[in-house]
Amino acid sequence: MEGPLPPAARMLEDRMATIHVLHENDEWYAPLAAALDAAKLPHASWHMGEGWLDLGQAPPKGVFFTRMSASAHTRGHLHAPDYTAAVLAWLERHERRIVNGSAALRLEMSKAAQCQLLESFGFTTPRTLVTHGPHKALEAARLFKGPFITKHNRSGKGLGVRLFRSAEALEHYLAGEDFAAPVDGLLLLQEYIQSPEPFITRLEFVGGRFLYALRVDTSAGFELCPADSCAVQEQCALTPAAKFAIVDEEQPDAPRYEAMLRAAGVEVAGIEYILDRQGRAYTYDINVNTNYNTEAERKAGKSAFAALCGFLAGELARAG
Fold first, then answer.
1. Quick one: how far is CA 119 from the chain centroid?
2. How far apart, in whole angstroms, are the C-alpha atoms of residue 91 and residue 255?
């Protein structure tokens, strides 16, 4: 989005309700755009990497779908979430239909906020300490009796996720060249959950409803973005696409997750949990900007983008 639309384009959009997608990653937007095209749904890309906004102008008609990512800064879009927040405030003032609005954006930007939401709804989460400053991180690390992991508070793609067996190991890492400071200054220390098998489970939700469960192999590391574009980019160093598999297993907590997302104002998301050696589930992540793996969906005969297009089509019909 670069500013007010030209008069001719504005007249067209005023006549025809459109699905407006707020995002900052063209590679992640492309498969959604292709799905919207296949469904013959009118859509527009609002790239939030830069732009300007006239607050005195009313927004166009349609449905606004927020796909802002907490990892935007890794693609040179450090302030895209802040600009998105301003745009969403404008849209909300004009009472436009927004899928994943301001409340969802705030949740996407903070792993600490996600932990608090999960705990408030009775989900078990790993013990988590939020630290500000390297010295405080070391103080917090000494409170763990066993192994722990670090992660960035504002992150995506597993940024900052590393396993440590001692505070001394963390101290060496923080002083080394490999350490990358969190973009918001907050480093989370989290209890390491020992799983009997190297995988986590990710539940996908569309329109606030559970769609399917994805099993993700973690043996190659913690950067677990399922997007097809991530799987082929060397800088992501992600688990190969073949290690993503949709599983047909009962997910007893799905209704509770649905209730939590509904209360939080989140309609499209992925939620991740891990099982410990006793079979207890620990929920640790809510991905408000969620992506899907084509190969896993093809093998299972499912399509989250098809479900998403159906949901957005219904919302567009009501908003139009």
1. 19
2. 30
Encode pLDDT of 266-280 as tens digits.
999 999 999 999 999
What single-letter amino acid sits at 291? N
Question: What CATH number matches the domain at 7-107+311-319, 3.10.450.350, 3.40.50.170, 3.40.50.1110, 3.40.50.20?
Answer: 3.40.50.20
Torsion angle in degrees (nearest 10) through CA of 117, 123, 126, 127: 70
- CATH superfamily to which 195-302 belongs: ATP-grasp fold, B domain (3.30.470.20)
Angle at 258 between CA 246 and CA 113, to 5 degrees: 100
What order of strands is seen across the sheet that includes strand 148-152?
128-132, 186-191, 148-152, 162-164
pLDDT digits (tens, 9 = 90+) for 66-85: 999 999 999 999 999 999 99
Q: How many CB atoms lie within 10 A of CB 74?
A: 18
Write down the pTM of the prediction.
0.89
CATH for 128-191, options being 3.40.50.300, 3.30.420.40, 3.30.1490.20, 2.170.150.20: 3.30.1490.20
Residue among 267, 305, 302 at smallest CA distance from 286: 267
Distance CA 104, CA 265 (A): 6
